[in-house]
Amino acid sequence: MSGQSFFEHLFEHSKQVTPYLIGSINHQPNESSEHPIVRIDYSSAAQIQSLYEQLKLLHPEAGAPYWLTRTWTLLCWQPIYVAFIAIYACRGLPNISTMAQSIQSGFVSGYQFKSATYQQGSEQELITKAGHELNLLFDYFRSEMSQWTRIRPGFTRHLFADGILGCLVKLSQYAPELPEHYLLEQARLWLRACDLSEKFMDRLTYDDSSKQLTLIRTSCCLVYKCQGRKLCDDCPRHPNNKR
What is the pLDDT of residue 206? Predict the structure, then answer.
């Protein structure tokens, strides 16, 4: 498959998963975008801090732990989604670590690549590559955020693992024909590739009746601290998920 065809498929599948996941090829993303851009090859500390401040204005009642958690998850959701869609729907992988992302008002939506180059390989090879790329990108985010706030690696690892396993749950929903052993093996491959503990596997359960994975996250997004919001169904704080 040509690079152009691969990215056409990637962008189309992305929009089908969620309309907020809008991809493009843009050789000069920082100069041509109307929104602030976050990307690994220049300093994004100010842009990321502005996202944090936007969340602070939007949800003043939620508090600093929510603003920090939300900032981090907004930065990371698109790279994880794109990696999954690229591997499982398009059988390839773009250079995730160099993707640029657009900061909207209190949100991150839209991603760009500089060129139509991508990598092919087996599923396992692509997952290994994706884990490496995601770690490079997330280490960069943490380094940029460390310039203006304290952000612990342990905190981000839990959110990282929840993001990965959450995407596997969505994969099982999109493809209920995938067997339990395959989904659990994929979870193990992703955790290893991302240098995350396989203990996170304990948070997954396979439902034989629905043929889907379910997840109880290890981290709380703290959205319940926002006015009018409540605990998520997969939140570890939810009464139904107490073990």
Answer: 92
